[in-house]
Each structure stands twice: as C-alpha cells, then as structure tokens.
Amino acid sequence: MRVIILDSAKDVAQFAANTIIDTVNRKMRPTLGLATGSTPIEAYRAAIDAYKANRVSFAQTVTFNLDEYIGIKEEHIQSYRYFMNQHFFSHIDIPLSNTFLPSAASLNEAQLHKNAHQYEEAIKKAGGIDLQLLGIGENGHIGFNEPTSSLRSRTRIKSLSESTIEANKRFFKNGEYQPRLALTMGIETILESRQLLLLATGSKKANAVKDMVEGPLTAMCPASALQLHQDATIVIDSEAADKL
Ligand code: GLP
Fold it and tell me: What are the tens digits of pLDDT across the range 82-105?
C-alpha cells in the first residue's frame, strides 16, 4: 500500500485525474471502476478539463461504478446514475452504453440477486477493471461495504449503517425519501481490480484513514482490505493524514 500525502484536496483531485488519464491513454480498451460521493467530483472535473484540452479521449473506455441505491430509478436526481451523468459522463465522449452501474431500481429481492450476479459477469466479460477509484466512508466503508462486510464479499444487497445514512443525509432534501439499501460491489470484487486508487480529503476522514493504513486487517474497517492488494495507492490531503 502506497500512501501519498498532498497539500490540498485540489492536488488530490489532480493526482487522481492524471492517474485516470494515464490508464485511459495506455490501454486500447480501458476499464475504469468509478466512485460517487463528494470526494471524486473535483477529480472528474479535472479529467473533463483534460478531455476538453484534447489530452484524452474516453471513446473506447468502459466504466463500472461501485454501487447504486436500491429502489431508486435511474432518472431520479438522487440515483448514482444521475450523479455520474451529471458530474462526468455527459461532459466527455464516452458512449453511455459503455457505462455500467448495478441495476437497483427493482424492489424484488430475487431480481436484485440476479442483477448483482449479472454485474459480476459483465465486469468479467469486460476483462476486469484496470483502475478502480475509491472514496472512504467515515466508518471505513468502501463502495457500500459497511463494517462487518465479509472480505470475500461479491456484488450484493447491503443495508446501510445508521452512520452512513446520517453522513449522506446532506444530499437529500428535508423529508425526501432516503434509501437504506444499496447494491454494491463486494470487497473481493474490488480487490480483483488491477490497480486501486483511494482518495480521502478533510479531517472527517482522518480516523478512517488511520484505521485503513495503520490498523489491523479487519471487517470492522472494510478499507483495511486494501492492505492485501499489490497495487493500491491512497492519496490524501494533509487534513485526512492528520492522525497518521
Ligand atoms: C458513499 C459512497 C462511497 C463513498 C462514501 C464517501 O457512501 N457509497 O463510495 O466513498 O460515500 O463519500 P464522500 O466522498 O462524499 O465523503
């Protein structure tokens, strides 16, 4: 595990964008694993700037997102599909048919299990993920793999912890329906990516970063599973590095 501490959140975003661009420019048919949350937004913005400056084309890129809320339609403003279109896909030349998120609109359990299985198959068919971008929850979650998630987990239904629901409340209007379930890639699915790049910024992430980097490998801090990966880079700003 490589840990890179940079001065500011802006530097973290630029580092992430450069890594994405390098991967896309190096491969004939690059496969990116993407993340939502507020942390990667600036990285997407920097990658969009690079696209506009003709430094990169995403025309051959295939993407798989980590997770999606269950019971929310794709066109809903709170869906992760909407988020990705708004913050990244609609600004670059990627065909939308190359962009995948777990299909989670259904509330039927059997259907969701089937969709989870199909998602794993689609990743395999694409040849696996070259570069997986990750954020980290304040409780150490990656994707929506909450504490106690099996380190061998695959894409599946996961209930969100109270603390995650609380942390993500800021994205929902007062009284608006907030999902308590998600379909998420599993920890083992994530670890199968050839390269991992986890971003964390701000003091709220300092404890989770410490547990991930210096703590024991444990299902209580799902991000600690990155210690097992051969090519995992953690890029953080000085605030998120405060407890190291
Ligand atoms: C959500 C996402 C995670 C993300 C985390 C942190 O729960 N499922 O993939 O890493 O939030 O988000 P933020 O970057 O907004 O702190």
Answer: 999 999 999 999 999 999 999 999
Which residue out of 72, 83, 168 has the highest number of ligand 1 atoms within 8 Å of its CB and is therefore the one to mutate?
A: 168
Three-state SS sequence of 13-25 = HHHHHHHHHHHHH
In a domain, 243, yes or no: no
Give the residue from 164, 165, 119, 126 showing the smallest Cα distance to 142: 164
102 CB under 6 A from ligand 1? no
Helices 41-52 and 80-87: angle between axes, nearest 10 degrees: 40
The parent domain of residue 97 ranges over 2-237
Model ipTM? 0.95
Q: Which residues pair with 33 in a beta bridge?
A: 64, 132
**What is the number of structural domains in the chain?**
1
